[in-house]
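As a warm-up, study this chain.
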Amino acid sequence: MENFKNSPFVKKVGFNRIVLVGVMILMYIIFSIASGRILGYANIMSALNYAYFLGFLALGVTFVIATGGIDFSIGPVMFCAALIGGRLLVKDGVPVIVALLVCILVGMLFGIWNGILVAYMGLPSFISSMASMMLAKGIGSVFTQTQSISWPQGSEPTGWFRNLVKMKVGGVDIPTGLILLLVVAVICAMILNNTKAGRYILCLGSNKEAVRLSGVDVKKWECLAYVFCGTLAGIAAIAYVGCYTTVQPGLGDTFNNEAIASCVMGGTSMSGGIASIGGSIIGVFIISLLQEGILAMGFQKDYQYVITGIIVLLAVFADVRSRRRKN
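Now compare it with the structure written out below.
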């Protein structure tokens, strides 16, 4: 096992990522056997629909967790952005591209708001994000007068935006959203691992006080992590409405937990300082496959929460053990 871990390929890819991919393949086999049928293309597409928006949420919150913080507002912010953009499109007749940009802008504004509260006002990220979660729910509900918003179908002229995540070619669904998600993931990985912003964000999670004493403007870089998170929540809103039609006010809480679970499962430390963009994406695919497999077996989605909770506990326990060994 040690020889395998120390091989050049494993060192480059990451032992944790290889294990996660193995777990995902094993899950697919187990669900196919347990449900009595092979999970086919339709099941995979359904899982991918769920993975698109969850993936963008997980990418964003990875930056925040890397600083040692947390953001419980990303799910409601995604819904708030989708509600506001959809309302402007459906009720007020703004162009589709404007509605999509509004989604991103709403997410970015919430990211700036959270960043100011945490970095510049010194509020605990747990408390500030919980307040922002309620704020996002309230704004979305007030803006739409507590009514659901249905974005245009793909058959309508204004429904072209759905091609961003799912395009039909010859009656077959092509997962264009997967390409978009992976491209954004590569960009996020480059920012986190190869730029000054990413290095400072990771250093904040390792030892914020030491970074401050070295003369770095820690407030700016910590705030930037939340801006990244909010902006990606806005992009997640576009992915959500590209796959699903109706957006309801007051929802989104469960997606916070699933996005955070994906990050922790993928190797991002809840203590900060260690983050893996690739691991977060694999974690998202595992969560999405878990949901689809449970539904294929005829169980309710509640079972997914139980299994996800157990997985997160094991991942956090492994992270704590690993840090203790290093110390």
